[in-house]
Each structure stands twice: as structure tokens, then as C-alpha cells.
Write a structure and sequence with these properties.
The protein is an all-alpha fold. The protein is about 40% helix and about 0% strand. The chain folds into 2 domains: about 80 residues, no CATH class; about 110 residues, Cytochrome Bc1 Complex, Chain D, domain 2, CATH 1.10.760. It contains 9 helices and no strands.
């Protein structure tokens, strides 16, 4: 849903980047054992070389946190015990609104869903609030015909769950930190990584769950 620079890069991405780096250096990608793939040291070297001269804040994003380390280690398919460990860790990061209200304005949520601003080099230092870029991965409203398919269609999302309070809470939690619902999800951790504010997350929840939202028309 967003181009959050989520720590770290997957081994699949790193392998592709490593192949490109080898070609740029005049080396054949076949120099690596195809069955084994790149070593962690090779991956780290390519990632470091891809971001020369970055400051400490950006450099920290190239280091995996424990969740990303585990997801990379198991190719996004962790065993049951690690799966539950990631879920438990994700749940501990979720912060709920002080007033207990989990839905905001769906109109604002639609604007956030359309906006891809934020967390890119070209957006730094920030000049306005980040967006969610939800349409990059999801279909949401019938009016918007340009959308990605990395994530499932969310059309009719609220209707599908009968607009229940439990579904509203689950949507809030998944947007805040999707690993609580699906460990090793490809979806950014919007709240846990401070990409979006609590109020922004509430607005996106409203886009999904408000009966008046075009998502549910």
C-alpha cells in the first residue's frame, strides 16, 4: 500500500539487485551458484553500494529489525513458532486512539489512498503529510480503474464483514501493523513504522468500513 522503505530488502529483491550489480561490473551472474543464491555478505554489499552517502537516519533503514530478519530467513514462510512470535510482537506495537474511536473520515481516507507521497528520497525533508498509496496494491472503489493487484481487492470490504465492530478493529490493527494478521505480509507497517498517524489510519479504516464510503457502494 505504500512505498515505505521497509527494513530490510527481501532476498529476492537483493538477488535481482546483485545480478544487476554483477552485470554492471562486467561479471556474469552465473558466477554465483544458482541453487544457493547470493550469500548474506553479498546481499549486504549490494544494498550498501546502492545507497552511497546517505545520512544516519536513512542508513538505519538498511538494517533488518527482528521481524524482517525472521521473514527473510524463512522466505516469508516462517514455521509455526516463529509465525506466532511475529504476531505477538506485532500486537505489542499497536497503539489505539485515546478516545477509542477507530473510524474517521472516509473522504480523507480516499485522498490518502490516492496519495503516494512520503518516505522517498525526493520527499525528504517532508513537505506535507505522507499518503497511504493504497491503490498501488489494491482495488478499492469502482470509480478508480487504475490500481495494483499485489494485494486483494477491497471493494465491498465493509459489507463483506457486515460493518461489525470486530471488523473495524481488525482493519485498524492490520493497517497499523499487518504482521498481527499475517506475519511476513508484504504490506507496510503504517502505524508501527510511523508512516501514517493514528488519525490517518482512522480515515483509511473509514474508507474501508463506513457504509457511506464508495468502497461499499
Amino acid at each position: 500500500m505504500h512505498n515505505e522503505i521497509q527494513r530490510p530488502f527481501s532476498r529476492t529483491f537483493a538477488a535481482a539487485a546483485l545480478g544487476a550489480a554483477l552485470l554492471a561490473a562486467g561479471l556474469a551472474p552465473g558466477a554465483l551458484a544458482q541453487d544457493a543464491g547470493p550469500t548474506q555478505a553479498q546481499v549486504d554489499a549490494v544494498v550498501e553500494a546502492a545507497f552511497p552517502g546517505i545520512d544516519a537516519e536513512w542508513a538505519a533503514r538498511l538494517t533488518p529489525d527482528e521481524t524482517m530478519r525472521q521473514c527473510n530467513q524463512f522466505g516469508n514462510m516462517p514455521p509455526d513458532d516463529v509465525f506466532e512470535e511475529i504476531r505477538t510482537r506485532a500486537a505489542s506495537t499497536i497503539v489505539y486512539p485515546d478516545d477509542g474511536v477507530l473510524m474517521g473520515s472516509w473522504e480523507n481516507g480516499e485522498k490518502l489512498a490516492q496519495s503516494g507521497y512520503g518516505m522517498r528520497f525526493s520527499d525528504y525533508p517532508p513537505r506535507r503529510e505522507s499518503g497511504g498509496n493504497c491503490y498501488a496494491c489494491h482495488q478499492l472503489t469502482p470509480q478508480e480503474v487504475s490500481y495494483g493487484t499485489l494485494g486483494p481487492s477491497l471493494m465491498g470490504y465493509g459489507k463483506l464483514y457486515d460493518f461489525s465492530e470486530e471488523a473495524v478493529k481488525a482493519a485498524y490493527e492490520k493497517i497499523y501493523n499487518p504482521h498481527v494478521a499475517l506475519p511476513c505480509s508484504m504490506m507496510p507497517r503504517f502505524g508501527a513504522n510511523a508512516v501514517l498517524t493514528i488519525d490517518q489510519i482512522k480515515d483509511i479504516v473509514a474508507l474501508l468500513m463506513d457504509p457511506a464510503s464508495p468502497v461499499n457502494q
